[in-house]
Amino acid sequence: MGQIALEGMEFFAFHGYYDEEQKIGNKYGVDLYIRTDLHAAGASDKLHETVNYEVLYRVVAEEMAAPARLLEHLGHRVLDRVLIEFPHVRSVKVSVSKFNPPLGGICHRARVTLTRRRNDSDTHQE
User: Fold this and answer.
1) CA pair distance 41, 90, nearest whole angstrom
2) Is 98 a known active-site residue?
3) How is this protein annotated for GO cellular component (predicted)?
4) Hey, what CATH topology would domain 2-125 get?
5) Separation CA 49–CA 29 (nearest Å)
């Protein structure tokens, strides 16, 4: 087993509970961690034996492009898509951050972190 991570992905997107947030947009950050068997890729040096980072990034970008009211909902969509697109992934963890959330004061980011294991009906929140 091993871990593949895409850290510090940034997107400008139109998420938010308030209608105005969905109109003006905001900057978001995503960190993604997947656990999978990396033995075959390590032995063969072949891309088809592992999870292609480009495809993984595209999956996250597509979910970030579709508006959501809650970061929790957005995180769940990313988890679902990764597990659907990559059948050999054993678990996935995603953190979604909203930069400068509209809280009426100084807050650099609000973040939600979700984890799901394959065939796990419960999502664990941290």
Assistant:
1) 16
2) yes
3) cytoplasm
4) GTP Cyclohydrolase I, domain 2 (3.30.1130)
5) 28
Query: Count of CB atoms within 10 A of residue 49's CB?
Result: 15
Cβ neighbour number for residue 85 with a 10 Å cutoff = 14
Task: Name the residue among 85, 63, 84 with its Cα closest to residue 74.
Answer: 63
Catalytic residue among 27, 46, 93, 98: 98
Q: Give the pLDDT confidence of 23-82 residue by residue, as tens digits.
A: 999 999 999 999 999 999 999 999 999 999 999 999 999 999 999 999 999 999 999 999
Asked if 122 and 87 touch (Cβ cutoff 8 Å), the reply is no
Q: Contact, 72 vs 112, CB < 8 A? A: yes
Of the pLDDT bands very low, low, confident and very high (cuts 50, 70, 90), residue 123 is very low
Task: Round to whole Å and give the CA distance between 28 and 4.
Answer: 21
